[in-house]
TrEMBL record:
Pfam families from the UniProt entry: Methyltr_RsmB-F, RsmF-B_ferredox
Organism placement in taxonomy: Bacteria, Pseudomonadati, Pseudomonadota, Alphaproteobacteria, Rhodobacterales
Protein name (database record): 16S rRNA (Cytosine967-C5)-methyltransferase
Biological process according to GO: RNA methylation
UniProt-annotated binding residues for S-adenosyl-L-methionine: 253, 277, 291
Keyword Transcription tagged: no
Keyword Transferase attributed: yes
PROSITE patterns attached to this UniProt entry: SAM_MT_RSMB_NOP
Domain SAM-dependent MTase RsmB/NOP-type: 139-389
Enzyme active site: 344
Signal peptide positions (record): none
GO MF annotation, one: RNA binding
Length: 389
């Protein structure tokens, strides 16, 4: 496919997504219907679609509207690609530009700070400005670009150097990242990771560097009892198991189906994680981890559709659920034990505000809080470590 044909494909996909089709499903259906497209074409089309979802507001402002054509025109403008070389109508290229589109191109582009702000949901903008303070502009700009892929090296299976060599054997280049001592940032070959030997042997796992940084700061007694109360696919539990091989880790989730990957992942990693049925946790733990359901605003580079789906009502539901989960888990923390509350959100209402409200209810003291944003390289992430009195 020519670069222009890839853009034409992205235009039709973006229109299907705007009409309500989830992005992943639209891409899968497009791949099935266009079997001639090679892996490079698929990757390029996917990147156009995800870039446009991430930068929907700014591309629409630059391209004169949020239709597929408007967004791709906006992308051309943002990336200084001459639209006349793309919108030619030749072969499989998009149709030539109409008079209205040419007028949009001739008009002055909005100021850079205005463009960056348009890529947040409008109703959240003031909240984000207040929460991010002096970091607002830098974080907003970082959230417009594709997120890097990070791996966590499982130090029970090998060193960083061994992981780098094994990845290189499979054509994957990576480098250590200063935020966490287990972290590798993938430089090329990211799409090959899940089929690589290093991954299949459990030497590396996919995990954002911010989560790794938070978890490596946890200290535990020998043979500590640990509960991962919102375990999902087990990313946090597995990281903890690798750092504390003597710990007895129980994973729990309100939705047991979300934990189905834990057993195969733990088998690959050589870790032992016990699964608890939903609502069937008993006993006391030295550490309870609450990786709470949240807006995911810190990960919107990866999941840009979620950013446009979030509503004030859903955010209010989430904060109520976060309070509920904190209350439910507090009784599982042994006296003197730790409670680690985490979200992948940039919003203070899901982070500091929840922790402050919980502390006010008594029985716990704050040990530390950490706020990470893409400025440090990884996803937006929040963690507060509390101690039961
Ligand atoms: C942020 S995700 C967890 C991600 C996971 N810890 C990881 O590292 O891969 C939040 C999880 O909380 C679970 N959850 C939602 N409500 C819950 C509740 N009331 N009790 C326990 N888990 C809940 C969701 O099913 C979801 O899997």
């Amino acid at each position: 496919m020519t670069p222009a044909a890839r853009i034409a494909a992205a235009i039709s996909l973006l229109d299907a997504i705007a009409a309500g089709e989830p992005a992943e499903r639209a891409l899968t259906n497009w791949g099935r219907a266009n079997r001639f497209a090679g892996s490079g074409d698929r990757a390029a089309v996917r990147d156009h679609v995800y870039d446009a979802l991430r930068c929907r507001g700014s591309y629409a402002a630059l391209g004169g509207g949020a239709s597929g054509r408007g967004l791709m025109l906006g992308m051309c403008r943002a990336e200084a690609i001459d639209p006349a070389t793309v919108f030619t109508g030749e072969g499989h290229a998009p149709a030539p530009l109409g008079a209205e589109e040419l007028a949009v191109l001739a008009s002055a582009a909005p100021a850079a700070e205005d463009l960056v702000a348009r890529d947040w949901p409008e109703w959240l903008l003031e909240q984000l400005r207040a929460d991010l303070g002096a970091d607002f502009a830098e974080v907003s700009a970082a959230m417009q670009v594709r997120a890097p892929v990070f791996l966590r090296v499982n130090l029970t299976k090998g060193t960083l150097a061994q992981a780098l060599a094994a990845l290189a054997d499979d054509g994957i280049a990576a480098e250590p990242h200063p935020l966490a001592r287990t972290a590798l940032r993938v430089l090329s070959g990211a799409r090959r990771v899940s089929a690589s030997q290093a991954y299949m042997r459990g030497l590396v796992e996919l995990q954002d560097v911010a989560s790794q940084a938070v978890l490596e700061g946890i200290s535990l007694p020998q043979r500590a009892r640990v509960l991962d109360y919102c375990a999902g696919g087990g990313g946090k539990a597995l990281a903890l198991a690798a750092a504390h091989p003597g710990a007895a880790i129980t994973a729990h989730d309100v939705d047991a189906a979300r934990m189905r990957d834990i057993a195969p992942r733990a088998a690959r990693a050589g870790a032992r994680i016990t699964l608890a049925d939903p609502g069937k946790v008993s006993g006391l733990f030295d550490l309870v981890m609450v990786d709470a359901p949240c807006s995911g605003s810190g990960t919107w580079r990866r999941t840009p559709e979620a950013k446009w789906r979030l509503t004030p009502a859903r955010l209010a539901e989430l904060t109520a659920l976060q309070d509920e989960i904190l209350t439910a888990t507090a009784r599982h923390v042994a006296p003197g034990g730790q409670l680690l509350y985490m979200t992948c959100s940039l919003l203070a209402v899901e982070n500091d505000a929840r922790v402050d409200a919980f502390l006010e209810r008594g029985g716990f003291a704050l040990l530390s809080r950490r706020r990470l944003s893409p400025r440090e390289g990884g996803d937006g992430f929040f963690a507060a470590l509390l101690r039961r009195l």
